From TrEMBL:
One of its GO terms (molecular function) is transmembrane transporter activity. CDD domains: MFS_MMR_MDR_like. The chain crosses the membrane at residues 21-41, 53-73, 85-104, 110-132, 144-166, 172-194, 206-226, 232-251, 281-300, 306-327, 339-358, 364-383, 404-432, 491-512. This is MFS transporter. Its main location: membrane. GO terms for cellular component: plasma membrane. It comes from Pseudonocardia broussonetiae.
Amino acid sequence: MTGTGAPSVPEGATGSRALGLLLAMAMFVLVVDTSLMNVSISAVVQDLGTTVSGVQSAIALEALVSAAFILIGGKVGDLVGRKRAYVLGLVGYAVGATAMAFAQTLTAVVIFWAVVGGLGASLLLPAMQSLIHGNFEGAARKKVYALVGAAAAIAAAVGPLLGGFITTYLSWRVGFVFEGVVIAVVLTGIRLVHDVPYTGARQIDLVGAALSVLGMGGVVLSILVWQEGGGAVGLIMLIGVAGLVGLVLWLRRQADRGRTTLLDPALFVSRHFRIGVSQQLFQQIALGGTMIVLPIYLQMVLEYDAMEAGLALSPLSLTMFGVAVLAGRSAGKRRPSRIVQLGFALFAVGVVALIVIVPQSGSGWSLSLPLVVAGSGLGLLVSQLNNYTLSPIADERVSEAAGVNSAAGSFGLSFGLAFSGAIMLATLAATFTAEAESSTVLPPDDQQRVAQVLAEDAELMSNTKLSGLLAEQPEEIRQEILRINTETRPFALQVSLAVPLLAGLVGLVNSFRMTRLPDPRPAGPDGPVAG
């Protein structure tokens, strides 16, 4: 069922303005959700009696589910109706937010927030793209795209501050109640949405859908399993890689035979689209890795509360927003490829400065200048990459192309979140064990016990919490373990910052390919621009 196929809302109508605002509100909730979790890690760990690695895994899993199912979500919207998919996506996200308000265990967070909420996002994002395209026309459509984009940028900028304030002065659960209320308001305006009919093929590429989930899911899931000390990590990773390779081969085979595919490989005829999608992937790996490492550092090492952590992160988020707005307004004055190149370069410089400063940092404000530099780089990237990637694609195919672009971004985000966290905990376990075994203060039995505990459940822990756990130990042993913890945590965080740094450097190298291409030009009516 695809709906009635009602015409676009007339430009300038009252309903269109209200609908645009509601769509922007939905996007705001989608983006602010992860920021709320990042700055609330310490509070969530304490309230649920779980671990930092467990909460970090849930955050990465939510992004992974969204990435793994977003291409399928777009096809579901085609078949059941974009309006219905939009409603189902909102409801799924509301279920996840409501569950977070009442969750008592990490299992509930994983099932309802990460899985159900992630599935909701996978339906909501592509449906929103299609509904904007079908409900608005001309200047009104451009205004709504700009409004939704601005809502996402504002959410990214104020998310850490808003989440920090709510968590510190109310409760992290209140933040998710707020999300549920916003979604309820958005649903009250569903009558303003006119469904967008789908006239393409009705068949579903089940094999392509399965391979996409298997590929993206396997790669990130293997990292999460490794982080939690599970087995068969290599096998899961191999299955994931095989799934991605199999997806590419399958799509090409089906396209050559003229059969229905999960996505059309012809989209990748455009070199601008190919390189734009890859740059989106690297940008999101860089962002995801940075935004999981820094909140953990601020809350577990410097022992900041959520508000203090949000304030300390504000130079990154606010600079990213401000630079994106300024760069977007003056985009025509410079080549997009040069702006992207400068963006990756600034981000890499900022992360290198963070790596140098972390061991000597006694305050989050000492990180402000590197965060401003890194945020400026991310702002430049945000201002250019979506338009660069999608501009060569014809209007009738932009929804599918946007789905691919979103999938690459969500996969990159989940990979950055998972891999940075896993590297941090693995480094912590290795260095803590090495320091304990070389200690002249700890008895051999204590050295072995430390090694065994870390091998089973590596955990980044504040000195205050660790001191409480060691209250019954002799003072000499307690001080020695606290010393080891103090010295190993910054190093583990330095190593984990190598993940976003490497993504930024690969993006920088890739940008030289962009500069050798001519600037992208709008697509013709028949499909992607070749070249």
